[in-house]
């Protein structure tokens, strides 16, 4: 095998292993919290030797921060359509769709974030004070611009963002409760669409955008 091919295969294996580790860590941290999780539990969940975990992530905290950063980066990407939209109907509507889809596909990541924050963010407080604060400030200015342009009611942008986060992430953080109230079954494709449409209608009408 040629050297470039060997390098490519090695890189693919590394990426696959990191993906397996992060998926396992996300699940373990969601179920056990940072304090209850161990590198051995994560290794077992990933189906890899514990030594492999330490090859990719030297400490549990390093791995935990990577999991938290990954879910936050997914949320940031969800805001792309929000940022480039001409108004709240398009922007907030697309943001709700994207955030609810993330709750559907990455429920464990959302639970890890929620648990960390509810415990006072002992590991990621610096992240909240920098990246999250900067992102929130930028979105507040965008919402205020829509208000100034008369495209929505004069509300506090920060509280609108809190409501959007709480509502969309509820479908991940309280997924078991939703399934219980849905006859013990996960929401179907049709039910997810109905949920998204309902949330968008309630919020967009509430802020005077519709």
TrEMBL record:
Residues 38-57 bind DNA. Keywords: DNA-binding. PROSITE patterns: HTH_TETR_2 (PS50977). The keyword DNA-binding applies. It holds the Pfam family TetR_N. Residues 15-75 form the HTH tetR-type domain. One of its GO terms (molecular function) is transcription cis-regulatory region binding. GO terms for biological process: negative regulation of DNA-templated transcription. This is HTH-type transcriptional regulator RutR. It comes from Albidovulum aquaemixtae.
């Amino acid at each position: 095998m040629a050297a470039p091919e060997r390098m490519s295969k090695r890189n693919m294996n590394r990426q696959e292993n990191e993906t397996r580790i992060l998926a396992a860590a996300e699940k373990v941290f969601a179920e056990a919290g940072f304090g209850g999780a161990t590198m051995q539990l994560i290794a077992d969940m990933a189906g890899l030797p514990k030594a492999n975990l330490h090859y990719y992530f030297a400490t549990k905290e390093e791995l935990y921060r990577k999991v938290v950063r990954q879910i936050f980066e997914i949320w940031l990407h969800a805001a792309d359509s929000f940022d480039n939209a001409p108004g709240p109907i398009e922007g907030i509507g697309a943001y709700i769709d994207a955030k609810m889809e993330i709750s559907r596909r990455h429920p464990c990541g959302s639970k890890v974030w929620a648990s960390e924050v509810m415990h006072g963010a002992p590991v990621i407080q610096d992240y909240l004070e920098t990246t999250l604060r900067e992102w929130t400030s930028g979105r507040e200015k965008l919402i205020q611009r829509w208000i100034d342009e008369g495209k929505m009611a004069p509300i506090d942008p920060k509280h609108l963002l809190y409501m959007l986060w709480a509502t969309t992430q509820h479908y991940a953080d309280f997924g078991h409760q939703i399934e219980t109230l849905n006859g013990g079954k996960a929401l179907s494709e049709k039910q997810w669409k109905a949920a998204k449409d309902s949330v968008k209608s309630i919020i967009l009408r509430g802020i005077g955008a519709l």
